[in-house]
Amino acid sequence: MTSSPRTSRSRSETEKLALSPSVADTFEFLGRPWVTQLLFLLGQRQARFSELSQALPALSGRVLTERLRELCAEGLVVRHVQDGPSARVTYELTERGSGLSAALRGITDWADAV
After folding, report:
1. How far apart are CA 33 and CA 74, in angstroms?
2. Are 91 and 56 in contact (CB under 8 A)?
3. Cα–Cα distance for residue pair 78/46, rounded to 1 Å
4. Mutual orientation of helices 61-73 and 35-44 as an angle, nearest 10°?
5. Per-residue pLDDT, 84
6. What is the mean pLDDT of each run of 10 residues along the chain (114 residues)?
7. What is the pTM of this model?
8. Which CATH architecture has domain 21-113?
9. Residue 83 DSSP symbol
């Protein structure tokens, strides 16, 4: 008599599925509207607020400001202010943000291939 694959369970099939708290928090953060798009754009190069706004026309200025603040608070993006007659503000990925951007490139490569 042969056993069916359903009745013969390996150890990995009987272990409880779970996410660590840090992974769950990361997925929750990345699931916020516009976060992944902003990380992807800033993975291409540093950008000014107006450039990000133009690249994502459906994103309101208020939400863009909010998301950029969150990304800065998480240590993924740094805000540079260059003094002058008209202050120039740019946003750039940190080293930590660049690591996440690399992961997003894998997703975008997959999406382009589909």
Report:
1. 16
2. no
3. 10
4. 70
5. 84
6. 56 84 94 96 96 98 98 98 90 96 90 92
7. 0.81
8. Orthogonal Bundle (1.10)
9. -
